[in-house]
């Protein structure tokens, strides 16, 4: 285990650490420090300041096809897209105007915000998906040739007059059949609504995974498997087509605050309020394993007196795992066994 001191602390927000393999970033009130993956000095190579001091709710890198990655900021007041190193802003979409188009007679809401970031690619179409506090998922089209973004449409499960619960997390992945992509939208009731799209324009509503009142704090997707974290410390894996629970893990004693899926391997990392980070190796039907359902704990690391709020794989081959904590300027890193 090693630690690095960063200039600022991570905000107390779920899934508050992002990585594109080479860089790390998290939200710190209205700022986003971009941090080198290596133990270089200084650790922070750039800092993005949100407009007018607005709060940053989440940040994450998105990559479309073989193109470059982009750093996406979900803000209290809108959505921003930056180049990977935070040097140039490519999109600024104010949230009030977008929500007003989706929710009829939407009253002023001081808690209005964006939350949940996912990249979706299918049929040659590239889409950036960002969740909102009124339950809609905003979908932005991306022109890979011109490196531009434009607001395209929204995805919702109810009529616009009946907003869904606030989005807590998003995930997207190509379907195993290769015929489209899957979008998973989680909320505070524990519901995970699935959508599929063949072209990135029309979204078909799929399974709605069980809502049992436990907030779904994180969601990841790969092929036809959806992996979720909950406020009771449990991890669950679902079949996207069947909706069946494939695996349930009593992973932590308290709420899981962050979830990350390894970029290439079936390794799942979780950071929780019990001050521990756990890493799990999973083998699910059709998920690159033997076809048998299984789970194995790979690592279980503790950070004393830390309110963990983010976790990410990074480094060559994703061999490193880092965690961020609220009210702490230390970034803790481990190497996978």
From TrEMBL:
Record's keyword annotation contains Cell membrane: no
Residues covered by the WD repeat-containing protein 54 beta-propeller domain: 54-330
WD repeat start-end pairs: 249-282
Keyword vocabulary terms for this entry: WD repeat
Coiled coil segments of this chain: none
Name of the molecule in the record: WD repeat-containing protein 54 beta-propeller domain-containing protein
Organism per entry: Diacronema lutheri (Unicellular marine alga)
Lineage: Eukaryota, Haptista, Haptophyta, Pavlovophyceae, Pavlovales
């Amino acid at each position: 285990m090693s630690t690095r001191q960063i200039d600022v602390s991570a905000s107390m927000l779920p899934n508050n650490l992002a990585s594109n393999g080479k860089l790390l970033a998290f939200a710190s009130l209205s700022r986003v420090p971009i941090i080198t993956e290596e133990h270089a000095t200084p650790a922070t190579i750039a800092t993005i300041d949100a407009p007018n001091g607005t709060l940053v709710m989440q940040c994450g890198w998105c990559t479309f096809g073989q193109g470059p990655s982009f750093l996406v900021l979900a803000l209290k007041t809108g959505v921003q897209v930056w180049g990977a190193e935070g040097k140039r802003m490519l999109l600024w979409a104010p949230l009030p105007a977008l929500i007003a188009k989706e929710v009829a007679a939407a009253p002023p809401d001081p808690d209005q915000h964006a939350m949940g970031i996912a990249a979706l690619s299918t049929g040659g179409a590239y889409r950036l998906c960002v969740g909102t506090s009124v339950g809609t998922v905003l979908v932005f089209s991306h022109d890979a040739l011109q490196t531009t973004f434009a607001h395209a449409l929204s995805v919702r499960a109810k009529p616009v007059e009946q907003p869904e619960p606030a989005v807590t997390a998003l995930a997207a992945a190509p379907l195993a059949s290769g015929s489209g992509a899957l979008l998973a939208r989680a909320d505070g009731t524990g519901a995970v609504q699935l959508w599929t799209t063949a072209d990135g324009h029309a979204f078909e509503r799929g399974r709605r995974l069980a809502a049992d009142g436990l907030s779904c704090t994180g969601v990841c997707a790969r092929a036809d498997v959806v992996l979720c974290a909950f406020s009771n410390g449990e991890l669950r894996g679902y079949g996207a087509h069947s909706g069946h629970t494939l695996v349930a893990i009593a992973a932590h004693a308290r709420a899981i605050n962050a979830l990350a899926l390894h970029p290439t391997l079936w390794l799942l990392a979780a950071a929780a309020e019990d001050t521990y980070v756990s890493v799990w190796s999973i083998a699910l039907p059709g998920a690159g394993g033997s076809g048998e359902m299984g789970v194995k704990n790979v690592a279980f690391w503790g950070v004393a007196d830390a309110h963990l709020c983010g976790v990410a794989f990074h480094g060559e081959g994703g061999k490193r795992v880092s965690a961020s904590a609220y009210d702490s300027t230390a970034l803790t890193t481990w190497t996978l066994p």
